[in-house]
Amino acid sequence: MDVERLRDMLEKVKNGEMVIDDAISSLRTLPFEDLGFAKLDHHRALRNGFPEVVYCPGKTTPHILEILDKLTQRSYKVLASRATPDVAQAVLAQFNNAEYHEMARMLVVQADRGEQIAIEPKPTTVGTVLVVSAGTADMPVAEEAAVTASEMGSSVERLYDVGVAGIHRLLGHQDQLLSANVLIVVAGMEGALASVVGGLVSRPVIAVPTSVGYGASFHGLSALLTMLNSCATGVGVVNIDNGFGAGYLAHLINRDVV
Question: Which of 1, 160, 174, 178 is the most buried (most CB within 10 A)?
């Protein structure tokens, strides 16, 4: 249940286009719907501005399909993260309005319920979210961040393979760096790129350590510690490989909330 759908329903009750009992029936599953194996938070969009996102690993494909079916009955759009190609194939076969971003491992399922489709709210944003990656191997996490921010309503730009091993590649795009409202910096190995970018811009930098690297990188721990110890100002850090969390946070920062 999102704000626009709730407002539309209340307007219909006010204007006599919907009886109160029907409105109560629509609200009956708020704040959550119990499927036995999952409790779906239909109230999430009202609290946080975006519907509940499905984390696919650890869930069976039938469970994922049922969760998506129930969520799309009450939300204009549902995201499913870390979806494997097999899960994506099953979702695409069941939902007409589904799209799979293979690199990001992200599924986007639009509501398709005829008259029940809610108007997708168009959040007002301040500027652009720029996703910067150190190397090509970091792109899956970077794309997860980019798709998340974009589907939530932010304008997203990408700047990939500009790591510190060839710093001139980054410096050749200073205009793009300086024009962004929020920057997401995705890097593995030693994770130094976030500090470099943080020292160049005056906007928030969300650092995302990735598990890319050789043995001493400890599956992203070295990049995480480097980013946490950054001497650059305005740098915040999310968990290892958490592109989704970075994209979500970037959009929240980028929203124009009065």
Answer: 1
Q: What is the pTM of this model?
A: 0.83
Q: Select from 15, 16, 12, 38 the least CA-distant residue to 27.
A: 12
Whose tokens are 């029907």? That residue is 22
Q: Give how far Cα 19 sits from Cα of 14, 24, 87, 238, Å.
A: 9, 9, 40, 46
218-226 average pLDDT score: 96
Q: Which domain holds residue 53?
A: 3-116
Mean pLDDT, rounded, for 203-210: 97
Percent of the chain with pLDDT over 90: 67
d(CA 202, CA 214): 32
- What's the one-letter identity of residue 185? V
Do 70 and 143 lie in one domain? The reply is no
Residue 207 DSSP SS3: strand
Asked if residue 100 and residue 61 are part of one domain, the reply reads yes
Q: Tell me the residue type at 169.
A: R
For residues 90 and 139, membership in a common domain is answered with: no
d(CA 42, CA 21): 19
